[in-house]
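User: I've been trying to design a sequence by hand for this structure and keep getting stuck. Would you show me what you'd pick, starting by listing the structure so we're on the same page?

Assistant: Good idea, let's start from the same input. This is the structure you sent:
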């Protein structure tokens, strides 16, 4: 059985033993891309241009052939066909992950747990879904392919990190529902290591501290929020956060920390505030554009292939 880790340091093991020969950066990028897009096949031309687009076409295709051979040799496949247990199936001009290859993939387990909890509020998670989310966030040992700044990787890294933070949010809400305040604070601290100016997380932690009977730490959390927003964005906490601080100072906690006359937001919608990080918003817009470009390129390839066969 093959075990592949894409979160944090790239690693491939077979039966618990590391597989060597996959240390080259482009080899890891090729494998990571095909594993994340494991339900699709890609043309050699597309992969060569994506990974070595700065090179001449003939040279980029040569590099792709060499990289495919390195993968094949390192994983000791008997052939590159789709009918054996090789990780990659190479069929003429098309390359894809072989669905018959027995393997465990951390990203696949991670995405499955996220999908199973989709549409379920954190406070309404049953034990099975909560346990699956907890196991999934433990798989997230770090961002996808640290140090890789190819367009496709930036998009996938942002997508997976957004899923990670959303799962942690749900687990915090579950902890509030189950009065597991210390565990919820641990999840919150994890989120802030990735985004120290995430205002909604600071508010959740203020509530958790207060519910745990630690009003002092709840007020200190507000001070940490104010400092993070000042240093990261040069803004002050929102009225909603200030209202929550005032409630905690007064030793009372309403169901909604919105200030008077402020409409309570729909919990199903992402929070919008003047403190939203414009850099993060720009990254998400860029990632969406990259995904559209990839989709258009795939559709053009499909049409060209159909025309060639007609």
């Amino acid at each position: 059985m093959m075990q592949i880790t894409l979160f944090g340091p790239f690693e491939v093991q077979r039966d618990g033993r590391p597989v060597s020969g996959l240390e080259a950066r482009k080899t890891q990028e090729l494998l990571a891309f095909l594993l994340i897009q494991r339900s699709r096949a890609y043309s050699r031309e597309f992969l060569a241009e994506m990974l070595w687009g700065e090179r001449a076409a003939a040279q980029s295709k040569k590099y792709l052939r060499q990289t495919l051979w390195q993968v094949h040799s390192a994983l000791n496949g008997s052939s590159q066909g789709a009918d054996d247990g090789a990780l990659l199936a190479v069929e003429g001009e098309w390359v894809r992950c072989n669905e018959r290859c027995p393997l465990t993939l951390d990203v696949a387990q991670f995405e499955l747990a996220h999908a199973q909890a989709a549409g379920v509020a954190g406070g309404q998670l049953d034990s099975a879904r909560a346990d699956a989310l907890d196991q999934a966030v433990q798989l997230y040992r770090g961002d996808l392919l640290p140090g890789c700044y190819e367009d496709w990787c930036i998009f996938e890294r942002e997508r997976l990190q957004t899923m990670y933070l959303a799962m942690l949010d749900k687990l915090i809400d579950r902890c509030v529902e189950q009065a597991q305040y210390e565990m919820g604070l641990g999840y919150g601290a994890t989120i802030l290591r990735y985004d120290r100016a995430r205002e909604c997380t600071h508010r959740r932690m203020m509530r958790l501290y207060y519910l745990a009977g630690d009003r002092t730490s709840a007020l200190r959390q507000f001070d940490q929020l104010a400092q993070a927003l000042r240093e990261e964005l040069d803004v002050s906490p929102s009225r909603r956060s200030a209202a929550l601080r005032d409630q905690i100072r007064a030793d009372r906690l309403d169901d909604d920390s919105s200030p008077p006359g402020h409409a309570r937001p729909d919990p199903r919608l992402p929070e919008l505030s003047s403190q939203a990080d414009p850099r993060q918003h720009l990254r998400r817009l860029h990632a969406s554009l990259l995904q559209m470009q990839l989709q258009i390129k795939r559709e053009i390839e499909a049409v060209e292939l159909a025309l060639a066969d007609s």
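That's my pick for every position. To get oriented when you compare it with your attempt: Residues 77-82, 257-276 have pLDDT under 50 and may be disordered. The chain has two domains: 2-104, 120-284.
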